[in-house]
Description:
Blueprint: H1 8-11, H2 24-27, H3 32-39, E1 45-48, H4 55-65, E2 70-74, H5 80-95, E3 103-107, H6 114-126, E4 130-135, H7 139-142, H8 145-148, E5 152-155, H9 161-174, E6 182-185, H10 189-195, H11 199-211, E7 217-220, H12 222-232, H13 241-255, H14 259-271, H15 276-291, H16 297-312, H17 318-329, H18 336-350, H19 366-370, H20 409-421, H21 423-426
Parallel strand pairs: 1-4, 1-5, 2-3, 3-4, 6-7
Amino acid sequence: MYRSGIPLPERMRPKGLSDYVGQRHLVGPGCILRNMIDSGRLNSFILWGPPGVGKTTLAGIIAHTLEREFYTLSAVSSGVKDVREVIDRAKNNSLFSSAAPPVLFIDEIHRFNKAQQDALLGAVEAGTVVLIGATTENPSFEVITPLLSRCQVFVLKSLDSGDLLALLERALKEDAELKKLDIRLKETDALLRYSGGDARKLLNILEIVTDSAAGPEITIDNALVTSCLQENIAIYDKGGEMHYDIISAFIKSVRGSDPNAALYWMARMLAGGEDPLFIARRLCILAAEDIGLANPNALLLADATFRIVHSIGMPEARIPLSECAVYLASSPKSNSAYMAIDKAFAAAEADKGAPVPLYLRNAPTSLMKELGYSDGYRYAHDYPGHFTDLEFMPEQLSGSVFYEPQENPGEERLKSYLRSCWPKYYGKK
């Protein structure tokens, strides 16, 4: 059968909000972005969400609906020169037209460095352009504060199964090429599972499955989808199921103290185009969760690695990542801090109303002093060893032990100190 060459996700890209799937918390009736569009008063904002949830599409729909000139740049391939050219073009056009400011859409804005983001500031502040940025990363960390303060941040969510099924049904009913086929959807579990809330991935998978069919009659079930993907999906798909399998293998290799396996899985990720900052973030979490108090220096190294990777980028970033992964895998392990905070969260959830004992409250006013605030508090530094046996828990949680030191040299020192302070909780078992 003749194919147009245009991928299905592009053929199905909606032109208006009536065809836009998902993000009802933003574009549903009465919601914040919908109100902005309906009023025609457009302010700069950043769309933050996972891949394939409609960030680029939404920016285009907004510009089209409001009849704004639409400029688009990709942070992957654009530099300061490109940003300034667009801003100059917008300024020149405004001299000969009274039209509303154009929309400048920057995809993957988190990949812009500070100089590139600085180049946007004046134009955004002056209203020369309305900036719409799209990012899969937390803008609090990736967008400079002056630019972030001039933009609202809207969080987009992964599409749920209802959204994906609606998109699937629309594609089968409206796409001219799919309508030429006799397609029967028998099962959708595999389609939904492999797409992972990503509309683009769902439509790509649908196209792979239909392209692989021998004739016009196609019955789509879980087995067909799985077999087609095994033949067509790349060895490493940084946005798909293989991505999660490999990062899982990497984490478990570090946790299991195998530096060689950790390096192998990390190399697979980097060779497949994985964002090195994603790996660096996972190393930070690993250092706290799986090494913790057995070796607190692990968290310091992981934090330094994240900052260095952010500064230098690939390919050099592979070296500090390797150093950190080897160090963490070769370090003694403890999950005591991780276990302790989970126990504390459970207790806090169960006893949300537990009052702070009066003697632990500050008494900045005479009325508070009269009410007994701070009365009975003992300042630890006034006592031998800088310790006094005082109850710091709410009454109903007295005696609770959340942190339990584990067997490793680092925590043996902590256990010894705590045992000297609190023998009733940390005495020999």
